[in-house]
Amino acid sequence: MPRDAPDPRPLLSGRPRPGRWLSLLQRSLVVAAAVSLAAPATATAHLGGGTLSSDFEARISGLRPPAKGVSARVLGGDQRLQLSVRRPRVVIVLGLVGEPFLRFSPAGVQANAASPTALSTHVLAESDALPPGPVRWKRVEAGGEFAWHENRLRPVPVSASGDPRRVAGWSVPLVIDGRPAVLTGSEWHATAPSLWPWLLAGGIVLAAAAAGARQLSAAHRRIAICVLLPLSVASLLAGWAGVFLADRTTTLNLVVTAILIAPCVLAALLAAAGAPEEAGTAALALVAGLVAAFALPELAMFGHGFVLSALPDRMARIAAVTPVAAGVATAILCTPAVIETFTAPAVAAPQDVRR
User: Fold this and answer.
1) Across the chain, which distance is largest between two alpha carbons, in Å?
2) Is 172 exposed, middle or buried (0-12, 13-18, 19+ CB in 10 A)?
3) Position 349 in a domain
4) Among the three residues 135, 154, 189, which one is the final residue of a domain in this structure?
5) Residues of the chain with pLDDT > 70: what percent?
6) DSSP of 320-345, one letter per residue?
7) How far apart, in whole angstroms, are the C-alpha atoms of residue 324 and residue 336?
């Protein structure tokens, strides 16, 4: 080809260059990875195990007589009982037939290998169980805190409906420093909430997003996206944090959770504010879709009356709905940019013809 002949390969403009696409893809993947990795492992276990919510909840009334250094809490709605005993207390939990079942002492937590309750609650493996007879203690925990599956938290099966109400009482007998005591509580039942208010609120948000995608200017859509995307990420992580903290809420856990949430929200805000032109907004649609998809399992909590979360039930449900609604709304607002990115015709730049 002659040196002065024009280059037949046209230079294209009007579409993002490959380097820009690569940068946007990397940014989107970073945000999506931050969201997914920040989800605590226990939250995933709750979601996968189907124990995110329950129709029944066991509540502790108190310990009679009161004893300093001895505390209890219910885990999993009404699934497990956790007992914490501080030294030098010695506490024995009596089993289903009145036999010594567990012993909390300065030596740790021990289970009676000859206790039928230890076998039925899976505190001890079948290979470690002994026939009923003399007490044989086997250590199951080095510390002073232990949780086990406690059938006495669900005293009677009931068929109930309506608002939360007490349906039965329960008790677990103890021996504290050689003196009899009893841990008492109640079983509560609640039905699933009405879905109509939540569906109506979500419908309004999505309808507003659809109207905004058609009526708002690109600048105003960007502002809405900068609000909705961080909101969806923050609410998603708050919901997961509530599940994570349901079994164990401590100051350290709260601080760690806040440290995890803050960078993810900041990353989402920076991505929404700094994504260039239509291609960047299109990439944000992918991130918003991922956030909504991650939040979908949490909607299972609407099928039961009680939510197994450190958040109040209503707040936990808001934290479950918000990332779905806000994520889908963000994707809808990104739709014009997505269409523009993938349908804009290529424009050939003028060719420099040398003479």
Assistant:
1) 108
2) buried
3) no
4) 189
5) 69
6) HHHHHHHHHHHHHHHHHHHHHHHHPP
7) 20
Tens digit of each residue's pLDDT (9 = 90 or more) over 222-236: 888 888 888 888 888
Q: How far is CA 175 from CA 74, 106, 149, 319, in A?
A: 19, 15, 19, 42
Domain boundary among 157, 189, 221: 189
Q: Do strands 165-176 and 91-94 pair parallel, antiparallel, or not at all (unpaired)?
A: antiparallel
User: If we measure between CA atoms, which residue out of 98, 77, 99 comes closest to residue 149?
Assistant: 77
Note the pTM of the prediction, 2 decimals.
0.68
Using CA atoms, how far residue 32 sits from 25, 66, 164, 234, in Å, is 10, 49, 38, 13
| 247 phi and psi angles, rounded to 5 deg | -85, -25
Look at residue 351 and tell me if it is in a domain.
no
d(CA 138, CA 128): 9
Structure tokens at 210: 């659809």
Segment 211-225, tens digit of pLDDT = 998 998 888 888 888
Our separate counts of H helices and E strands in the chain read 8, 14
Q: Provide the mean pLDDT of the chain.
A: 78
Q: Does residue 350 lie within any of the structural domains?
A: no
- Express each pLDDT in 28-81 by its tens digit: 545 554 554 444 444 443 443 446 788 888 999 999 999 999 999 998 888 899
142 contacts: CB under 8 Å, gap ≥ 6: 108, 109
Domain range spanning residue 246?
Answer: 15-50+192-343
